[in-house]
Design brief:
37% of the residues lie in helices and 21% in strands. It is built from 9 helices and 10 strands. Strands 1, 2, 3, 4, 5, 8, 9 and 10 form an 8-stranded mixed beta sheet that branches. A two-stranded antiparallel ribbon has the order 6-7. It is globular.
Amino acid sequence: MLKRDKLKIVRKWYSNAKTTIDNINKVIDFFEDELLVETNTVMFADSICSDDVNSIQFPIRAKEFLGPFKLGGLSGFPFAGLSGMKAFSSHVPENGAAFIYYGPHIGITKEGVLGEINRHGQFYNTSCCGASIGALQNLKAHKIEKDYYDDLDYQINTIEQIILLEKERIFRAENSIFEATEVIYEAIDKRINELVANTQFNCRYIVLNGGVMVNSDADMGSFTSNKRFDIINVETGERSSSLDFLN
């Protein structure tokens, strides 16, 4: 299938989606051409779901960066917390930059079905993101108890609490899976920014690339719908958006 045909399917839901390969290529171009920073001085962290499909479908060219440092757990929420962010910051080359790619993921099959993918070697589709959809199913069944956390399943409980706060919004939406993913993105984006604000970095730049990672069938690959591409000058504290560069 041609790339343009794949994009046509994904862009029915995410109008600005591009292949994750193209997204990483653009990010690398930005570091080299706009920030004048070599990729081997960029420490990369991701806060994306621990689902294996994200590792399978993530572009190999990202290995030009150092890392990745893993901040995320289920649904991409940065469960590594402040300790994780501080550890990550301490690994960044002083003459380089920190790059954080983050957000939830969602599946779209080549038939355009939202919330599913056909994984490598499997005959039937499975849910994606399984954690988000599982939490959504519990929300619809009224099985989520406010402020309930179990040490054995703390991460999914956290995702459940996030969507519980936006229950009415999700139920009103045309597609609850799409809307729940938006809600989870907003929670991840807020937390990543909180963690960065409370962490000292001793490098030149911090680059935040937030959005939704869209997985598809094994022969389709992954896509990114960008929502944030912010550059923070560590020395001056100045923050600017270059989202138009990626889109």
